[in-house]
Write a structure and sequence with these properties.
Blueprint (H helix, E strand, L loop, with lengths): L14 H7 L17 H22 L8 H11 L6 H7 L8 H21 L3 H21 L2 H10 L9 H10 L10 E5 L4 H5 L4 E3 L2 E5 L3 H30 L3 H10 L23 H7 L3 H13 L4 H14 L3 H12 L4 H5 L3 H8 L14 H5 L12 H4 L2 H9 L1
Antiparallel strand pairs: 1-3, 2-3
Helix pairs in contact: 2-3, 2-5, 2-6, 4-5, 5-11, 6-10, 14-17
C-alpha cells in the first residue's frame, strides 16, 4: 500500500458533540460511529489502524512481556518512526482524561478505524482471531499508560461496577488467605471466570466463587470483557455482511478494498527513493526469482516468455522497476530487446517506449509517477488474458501453486 500521500482530516463536528461522544481516550467500542467521512478518509483510517496493529504484533514477537516497561518503550519507539500514526501515538501515551480538541479528534479517528477494521476482518474465523488478539494487545498497551484517575474514570464511564472492597473486607480476606490478600492494598472482588488467566497462574485468592485481584490485575478482567464483546460483535457483523453488500449501492468501491485489506502490504514505502541507488539491469532476473512480490515476478516471467506485455501490465511493471531503482536507460534497453523478439515495430510506433518515458516523467506532463500501491493492484479490473493485478486476488489456486513452485 502507498502511505506517502497526506491524509485528509476527518470532518469536525462541534467540539461539544465530540466531548459527549468521546469523554475518554480508551473505548470499549460499544456503539458504531455516526458521521460522514469521505471514501478516502474511510480507507486511510483503516490502513493506519492496520499498520498500528501489525507494528504492535511485530514488537510482541520479540518475546517481551506484554506488561513490561520494555514492551511499552519498544512499541512507542517503533511508532515514533511513523509520522502518519502520530494521533495513535498520542492516544497510547495519554493518561486518559484530557479534554482538548486534538484529543477529541484522535478519539474519533480511533473509533472509526476500529469499526472499519471490523468490516474487513469479520469474514473468516482466522481473520477474527487475528483482529481480536491485536486489539487486545492495543487495549492492554493503552491501559498501562492511563493514570489512576484515568483508570477509575474508564471503569465508571463503562458501567463495569468493579468497586474496591472495603477496609474491613480486606482485613477479613487477609485472614482467610493467610496473608495472600494484603490488608493495606486495594483489591477488587470479581467472578473467578473473568480472570481465568490469573487463576491459571495462581496469582489470585479464590473465595466462594470470587477472585480477589489487585488494582494492577484489573486489566485481566477488562480484557476478558473486551474479548467477549468484540468476538460477539465480529460474529454478528459477519452474519450481516452479505445483506450489507447487497443493499449498499457503492459496494464495489467500499467492500472490495475491505476484502483486500487483511492481505495488504504495509511495509516501508520505497516509491520515493532518495539515496540515488541504482539496480543494475543485469540483476533483474535473479532479483525477480528471489525478491520480487508475486505480482511482479509474474509480470517479469510473462515479459521474458512472451517478449511483450499488455498495456496495464506494462504500466504496473514499469513503475515498479522505476521504484526499485532501475534507470530509464536500462529499462528501455531491456524492453526493446524483448519486443524485438515479438513485435519490434510496436516498441516505438506502438507507444511502448513512450509509456516508459512518460512513466519516468520524461514525456507528457512530466509527472514523477510512483509505483502502484498494493490496494490499487488488488482492486484493479482484470480481464481474460490480462497479465496485471494481484495473483492472490485474480488467479485461481492452481495457477498460484504453479507460479510458486517455479
Amino acid at each position: 500500500m502507498d502511505f506517502s500521500h497526506r491524509r485528509q482530516k476527518v470532518l469536525k463536528p462541534e467540539q461539544g458533540e465530540l466531548a459527549i461522544s468521546y469523554p475518554h481516550d480508551l473505548q470499549m467500542y460499544t456503539t458504531p460511529p455516526v458521521c460522514e467521512i469521505s471514501l478516502t478518509e474511510f480507507e486511510q483510517l483503516a490502513i493506519d489502524r492496520l499498520k498500528l496493529l501489525r507494528t504492535i504484533e511485530q514488537i510482541s514477537l520479540h518475546g517481551l512481556a506484554k506488561n513490561s516497561e520494555e514492551w511499552k518503550i519498544a512499541v512507542a519507539n517503533e511508532l515514533k518512526k511513523h509520522l502518519d500514526l502520530k494521533y495513535f501515538l498520542k492516544l497510547i501515551n495519554s493518561t486518559g482524561v484530557k479534554s482538548k480538541e486534538p484529543d477529541y479528534q484522535a478519539r474519533k479517528c480511533d473509533h472509526i478505524s476500529h469499526f472499519v477494521l471490523r468490516l474487513a476482518f469479520c469474514r473468516t474465523e482466522e481473520l477474527r482471531r487475528w483482529l481480536i488478539s491485536r486489539e487486545l494487545e492495543l487495549f492492554r498497551l493503552r491501559w498501562l499508560h492511563l493514570s489512576a484517575e484515568g483508570k477509575s474514570e474508564f471503569i465508571r464511564l463503562n458501567n463495569l461496577n468493579y468497586n474496591p472492597i472495603t477496609p474491613s473486607e480486606r482485613i477479613e480476606m487477609n485472614k482467610e488467605s493467610s496473608g495472600m490478600v494484603i490488608s493495606t492494598a486495594d483489591y477488587y472482588r470479581v467472578p473467578f471466570t473473568q480472570v481465568l488467566d490469573l487463576v491459571r497462574l495462581r496469582k489470585v485468592f479464590l473465595h466462594h466463587g470470587f477472585a480477589y485481584i489487585t488494582n494492577t490485575d484489573i486489566i485481566s478482567v477488562l480484557l476478558t470483557v473486551f474479548r467477549s464483546r468484540l468476538s460477539h460483535e465480529l460474529s454478528r457483523t459477519a452474519r450481516q455482511l452479505p445483506a450489507m453488500e447487497v443493499i449498499e449501492e457503492d459496494q464495489d468501491r467500499i467492500f472490495r478494498p475491505l476484502k483486500a485489506l487483511p492481505h495488504a502490504y504495509i511495509g516501508e514505502d520505497y516509491s520515493n527513493k532518495k539515496t540515488g541507488e541504482k539496480v543494475p539491469i543485469e540483476c533483474i532476473d535473479s532479483l525477480a526469482r528471489q525478491s520480487f512480490p508475486l505480482c511482479m515476478r509474474q509480470l517479469h516471467a510473462k515479459l521474458r516468455h512472451d517478449h511483450k506485455l499488455k498495456h496495464h501490465g506494462r504500466l504496473q511493471y514499469a513503475l515498479f522497476l522505476k521504484g526499485i531503482g532501475v534507470t530509464l536507460e536500462d529499462i528501455l534497453t531491456m524492453w526493446r530487446e524483448e519486443w524485438a523478439k515479438s513485435e519490434p515495430e510496436k516498441f516505438e510506433k506502438g507507444g511502448v517506449a513512450y509509456l516508459l518515458r512518460h512513466s519516468y516523467g520524461k514525456e507528457g506532463k512530466r509527472t514523477n509517477y510512483t509505483p502502484q500501491s498494493c490496494m490499487k493492484i488488488i482492486t484493479a479490473s482484470v480481464g481474460t488474458g490480462d497479465q496485471h493485478g494481484c495473483p492472490f486476488k485474480h488467479n485461481d489456486v492452481s495457477a498460484i501453486r504453479l507460479t510458486l513452485t517455479q
